[in-house]
Amino acid sequence: MTAVPLGVPEVPARPVAPRRESRQIHVGPVAVGGGAPVSVQSMTTTRTSDIGATLQQIAELTASGCQIVRVASPTQDDADALATIARKSQIPV
User: Fold this and answer.
1) pTM assigned to the model
2) Would you place residue 1 in the very low, low, confident or very high pLDDT band (cuts 50, 70, 90)?
3) Are 44 and 37 in contact (CB under 8 A)?
4) What is the rounded (10 degree) CA torsion for 81, 91, 30, 80?
């Protein structure tokens, strides 16, 4: 089948800009920067002080392919829960 010209100019492909050189670091076992593949990251929406709910959400994110998770700790109770969450999480927090 041949294409029918519609008189619409073809949009030129934009060149991809070269990536800036960066140092590679590791967040747990996940390499970030320095030519490493892009890592999938997300953030929880639970109260961090609710350890069970936060770990459940991290497990769901892990099952969805997330490799690194971030949590908020605006209060001292949230900050106190971080050590337990990080220890029990399957992926880097």
Assistant:
1) 0.75
2) low
3) no
4) 0
